[in-house]
Amino acid sequence: MRTGTTKLAIVGAGAVGSTMAYAALMRGAARNVALLDIDRKKVDAEVLDLRHGLEFMPQASVEGSDDVAVCADADVVMVTAGAKQRPGQSRLDLAEATIGLMQKILPGLLEVAPNAVYVMVTNPVDIVTYASLKISGLPPHQMMGSGTVLDSSRLRHLVAQRCGVAVQNVHAYIAGEHGDSEIPLWSSATIGGVPLSEWNPLPGRLPLDAEARDVIARDVVRSAYTIIEGKGATNYAIGLAGSRIAEAILGDEDRVMPVSTLLDDFYGIDDVCLSVPSLVGRQGSIERFEVPLSDSEYDGLKTSAETVRAAARRFGY
């Protein structure tokens, strides 16, 4: 495990970036947290608010600026900044604008933090991660997307809620796109070591049958839309998920997480960034696990890959 002072840089001090900084400080993920945002007044205010709470957190420092130099020598760079969706813009329009933003900000980040592990959080995360790899020229292990870490947490919550167990005892992954074509990997899911296919409902609990699983899968996809409709953005859960990814990297944990990485002959899938269970540690993401897939899961993953690849090609990547 790596020892010494660690630095986490977060690009974007909006709802997601500032919440991620708060979560990272509360969890003690890094000794130094830096916020970068083009809005100097906003980033200064967020830093001041965070500093006022440092007494109640694990020992750390926090700084912020509109100058990329604030990210110098970062060990991990989380990119939450993205183009804002305007009325009438499609999701693909948003992708094009966000890729344009990455073309502007990545060169400066790489100049001051060339050895950092980069984690793209901004959406559509799989397309942005793939384009950012091409723009940056970084080796694939050094750049990943937050992928379906949050989606998998949503899945585990819903399964735990239905089955009446602690969410920490549910082990299940969402794979593929962080979006509408994502798929739950039911065939490898377990509760307390019991495969879901063999799970018998606890007294007073409903069965986790095929119909229930379909409802849960749909709810995972729809949940972000529900939150955005109610309060305008998702920030708490993605802030926690992002800080947990950073913690796994900074702590060299070799933790299995469904981050979005460049696939190379993963069940025959190549040249696309998708989420599959991957080993996350100080070097980034260097291994992917070929978890057993049912025929329908394999077909779903292939379809998800085609969806993301087609969108990336539309923008020349």
UniProtKB/TrEMBL annotation:
Phosphotyrosine: modified positions: Y225
Keyword Lyase: no
Catalytic residues of the enzyme: H178
SUPFAM superfamilies for this protein: LDH C-terminal domain-like, NAD(P)-binding Rossmann-fold domains
Transmembrane segments: none
Keywords: Allosteric enzyme, Cytoplasm, NAD, Oxidoreductase, Phosphoprotein, Signal
Record flagged with keyword Cell inner membrane: no
Protein function: Catalyzes the conversion of lactate to pyruvate.
Protein name: L-lactate dehydrogenase
